[in-house]
Amino acid sequence: MVSALARWRGQPEKRSGFRKGFPGFFSSHGEMERCEEEYMLRLAAEFARLKNLVVLWAMHPWERDARLAHHVLHQGHPAAVAVEVACTRSADELLGARRAYQALYHHSLEEDVAYRARDKPYCNVSEHPLVPGASSGGGGELIELA
Question: pTM, whole model, 2 decimals?
Protein backbone atom coordinates (compact mmCIF):
# COMPACT_ATOMS: atom_id res chain seq x y z
CA MET A 1 0.00 0.00 0.00
CA VAL A 2 2.81 2.39 0.87
CA SER A 3 4.65 1.66 -2.38
CA ALA A 4 1.44 2.29 -4.36
CA LEU A 5 1.00 5.66 -2.66
CA ALA A 6 4.67 6.49 -3.23
CA ARG A 7 4.17 6.06 -6.98
CA TRP A 8 1.58 8.84 -6.86
CA ARG A 9 4.20 11.23 -5.49
CA GLY A 10 5.45 12.16 -8.94
CA GLN A 11 1.93 12.27 -10.43
CA PRO A 12 -0.03 15.14 -8.88
CA GLU A 13 -2.87 14.67 -11.37
CA LYS A 14 -3.65 11.24 -9.83
CA ARG A 15 -3.80 12.73 -6.34
CA SER A 16 -6.00 15.53 -7.63
CA GLY A 17 -8.27 12.95 -9.27
CA PHE A 18 -8.46 11.07 -5.97
CA ARG A 19 -9.49 14.23 -4.11
CA LYS A 20 -12.10 15.09 -6.76
CA GLY A 21 -13.46 11.54 -6.58
CA PHE A 22 -14.42 12.05 -2.91
CA PRO A 23 -16.30 15.36 -2.82
CA GLY A 24 -17.69 14.71 0.68
CA PHE A 25 -14.21 14.53 2.14
CA PHE A 26 -12.61 17.40 0.26
CA SER A 27 -13.99 20.87 -0.39
CA SER A 28 -12.78 23.20 -3.09
CA HIS A 29 -11.24 26.50 -2.04
CA GLY A 30 -10.15 28.26 -5.20
CA GLU A 31 -7.44 26.17 -6.83
CA MET A 32 -6.96 23.96 -3.81
CA GLU A 33 -9.05 21.06 -2.46
CA ARG A 34 -9.06 21.24 1.31
CA CYS A 35 -9.51 18.14 3.47
CA GLU A 36 -12.43 18.40 5.89
CA GLU A 37 -11.42 18.18 9.56
CA GLU A 38 -13.95 15.45 10.39
CA TYR A 39 -12.60 13.33 7.55
CA MET A 40 -9.04 13.79 8.82
CA LEU A 41 -10.07 12.53 12.26
CA ARG A 42 -11.92 9.52 10.81
CA LEU A 43 -8.97 8.75 8.53
CA ALA A 44 -6.53 8.90 11.45
CA ALA A 45 -8.77 6.56 13.47
CA GLU A 46 -9.04 4.10 10.58
CA PHE A 47 -5.25 4.04 10.11
CA ALA A 48 -4.81 3.40 13.83
CA ARG A 49 -7.23 0.48 13.57
CA LEU A 50 -5.36 -0.81 10.51
CA LYS A 51 -2.06 -0.61 12.38
CA ASN A 52 -3.52 -2.57 15.30
CA LEU A 53 -4.95 -5.15 12.93
CA VAL A 54 -1.64 -5.64 11.11
CA VAL A 55 0.26 -5.97 14.39
CA LEU A 56 -2.22 -8.55 15.71
CA TRP A 57 -2.15 -10.43 12.40
CA ALA A 58 1.67 -10.58 12.41
CA MET A 59 1.90 -12.00 15.95
CA HIS A 60 2.07 -15.68 16.72
CA PRO A 61 -1.50 -16.81 17.57
CA TRP A 62 -0.53 -17.77 21.12
CA GLU A 63 1.06 -14.38 21.79
CA ARG A 64 -1.92 -12.60 20.24
CA ASP A 65 -4.37 -14.50 22.47
CA ALA A 66 -2.23 -13.87 25.57
CA ARG A 67 -2.07 -10.14 24.83
CA LEU A 68 -5.81 -9.98 24.18
CA ALA A 69 -6.48 -11.70 27.52
CA HIS A 70 -4.13 -9.28 29.28
CA HIS A 71 -5.93 -6.29 27.74
CA VAL A 72 -9.29 -7.66 28.86
CA LEU A 73 -8.07 -8.18 32.41
CA HIS A 74 -6.02 -5.02 32.91
CA GLN A 75 -7.50 -2.36 30.65
CA GLY A 76 -11.22 -2.85 31.06
CA HIS A 77 -12.00 -4.23 27.63
CA PRO A 78 -15.21 -6.28 27.31
CA ALA A 79 -14.97 -9.80 28.71
CA ALA A 80 -16.62 -11.02 25.51
CA VAL A 81 -13.20 -10.84 23.85
CA ALA A 82 -11.76 -13.39 26.27
CA VAL A 83 -14.88 -15.55 26.02
CA GLU A 84 -14.62 -15.58 22.23
CA VAL A 85 -10.95 -16.57 22.38
CA ALA A 86 -11.68 -19.33 24.91
CA CYS A 87 -14.59 -20.72 22.88
CA THR A 88 -12.96 -20.68 19.46
CA ARG A 89 -9.56 -22.19 20.26
CA SER A 90 -8.54 -25.81 20.56
CA ALA A 91 -7.12 -27.18 23.80
CA ASP A 92 -3.58 -27.02 22.38
CA GLU A 93 -4.06 -23.39 21.32
CA LEU A 94 -5.36 -22.46 24.77
CA LEU A 95 -2.41 -24.19 26.40
CA GLY A 96 -0.07 -22.27 24.10
CA ALA A 97 -1.77 -19.00 25.00
CA ARG A 98 -1.39 -19.80 28.72
CA ARG A 99 2.32 -20.46 28.21
CA ALA A 100 2.71 -17.26 26.21
CA TYR A 101 0.91 -15.30 28.96
CA GLN A 102 3.30 -16.73 31.54
CA ALA A 103 6.33 -15.84 29.39
CA LEU A 104 5.10 -12.30 28.66
CA TYR A 105 3.76 -11.26 32.06
CA HIS A 106 5.67 -13.54 34.49
CA HIS A 107 2.57 -14.92 36.20
CA SER A 108 -0.18 -17.26 35.20
CA LEU A 109 -3.38 -16.32 33.42
CA GLU A 110 -5.35 -18.17 36.09
CA GLU A 111 -3.80 -16.03 38.84
CA ASP A 112 -4.75 -12.84 37.01
CA VAL A 113 -8.31 -14.04 36.40
CA ALA A 114 -8.72 -15.03 40.06
CA TYR A 115 -7.30 -11.70 41.23
CA ARG A 116 -9.54 -9.66 38.93
CA ALA A 117 -12.64 -11.75 39.73
CA ARG A 118 -12.33 -11.53 43.51
CA ASP A 119 -14.23 -8.21 43.71
CA LYS A 120 -16.94 -9.14 41.25
CA PRO A 121 -20.07 -10.55 42.95
CA TYR A 122 -21.24 -12.24 39.74
CA CYS A 123 -18.09 -14.35 39.43
CA ASN A 124 -16.96 -15.03 42.98
CA VAL A 125 -14.25 -17.63 42.54
CA SER A 126 -13.79 -18.24 46.25
CA GLU A 127 -17.35 -19.58 46.63
CA HIS A 128 -17.48 -21.68 43.48
CA PRO A 129 -18.29 -25.34 44.24
CA LEU A 130 -15.67 -26.66 41.80
CA VAL A 131 -12.80 -24.66 43.30
CA PRO A 132 -10.78 -26.64 45.87
CA GLY A 133 -11.27 -25.25 49.37
CA ALA A 134 -14.37 -23.30 48.41
CA SER A 135 -16.62 -22.28 51.29
CA SER A 136 -19.90 -23.68 49.94
CA GLY A 137 -20.53 -27.38 50.21
CA GLY A 138 -21.61 -27.99 46.63
CA GLY A 139 -21.21 -31.36 45.10
CA GLY A 140 -19.85 -30.36 41.73
CA GLU A 141 -22.89 -28.70 40.15
CA LEU A 142 -22.30 -25.69 37.95
CA ILE A 143 -23.49 -22.21 38.84
CA GLU A 144 -26.11 -20.77 36.50
CA LEU A 145 -25.36 -17.30 35.20
CA ALA A 146 -28.60 -15.40 34.79
Answer: 0.57
